[in-house]
Write a structure and sequence with these properties.
Aminopeptidase; binds coenzyme A; 7 strands; 7-stranded mixed beta sheet; 4 helices; alpha+beta
Length: about 180
């Protein structure tokens, strides 16, 4: 992979399937593969296949034709990072949204992509009238203090919440951000 620099990527908001080239789709699959290879808890296990990752992205990209949006950090048609904003569907929670799959390729971490993705996702959440965002993150992969730096508050930790790709049960932190 070419070295990514802070000026060599841009953030795109996916609005329809047509926005995603096949090279981008392949790199989205590789993004999840990289996370699983690094034992990051991203919803998949070591024996998850590229077909599983591909199906996940097809489903998420289809949802982008609604209000839910996928944001990508793209460099030369290759996706280096992503984040998803999903509005709660139930009537009593339409003011709230979830920030999901904030993930940066291991070779592109630490150069500001995660910060930019979080900013774009939060700004979009405000635009569509969300007043509360929440997320969960497995504790052992959490970059210490990163969400607090981005204005999030830690609300608690649940032990044994999810498994790492290698099968180990790990605890998960929950965070929220008030937008109003
Ligand atoms: C957490 C994550 C999204 C941050 O994205 P990123 O592009 O690496 O973050 P940035 O480069 O914008 O850096 C944000 C801060 O985190 C710090 N940071 C990033 N990666 C780091 C690492 N591996 N170790 C220590 N600090 C790190 C940066 O120093 C920066 O702090 P600073 O502004 O004081 O310098 C990314 O590292 C990642 O995908 N991690 C693995 C998966 C994960 O844990 N996702 C969260 C699940 S919801």
């Amino acid at each position: 992979m070419e070295k990514i620099t802070p000026s060599s990527y841009s953030i795109m908001r996916v609005a329809s399937r047509a926005d995603i080239t096949s090279a981008m789709k392949d790199s989205l699959v590789q993004l999840l593969k990289d996370a699983v290879d690094n034992n990051f808890s991203v919803g998949f296990m070591k024996d998850s296949t590229e077909a599983d990752f591909d199906k996940f992205w097809s489903d998420e990209i289809a949802l982008c034709e609604s209000e839910n949006k996928l944001f990508l950090a793209v460099s030369e048609n290759q996706v280096q990072g992503c984040v998803i904003v999903t509005r709660e569907e139930r009537a009593n929670g339409r003011h709230r949204g979830e920030l999901r799959k904030l993930l940066v390729h291991s070779k592109a971490q630490g150069i500001g992509i995660g910060t930019k993705l979080e900013e774009e996702a939060t700004s979009y959440a405000r635009q569509i009238g969300l007043t509360l965002l929440y997320l969960d993150s497995a504790t052992n992969f959490l970059v210490n203090g990163v969400y607090e730096k981005w204005g999030w508050s830690k609300s608690g930790e649940i032990p044994q919440f999810a498994k790492n790709p290698d099968g180990e049960l790990v605890s998960t932190w929950f965070f929220y951000k008030l937008l109003s």
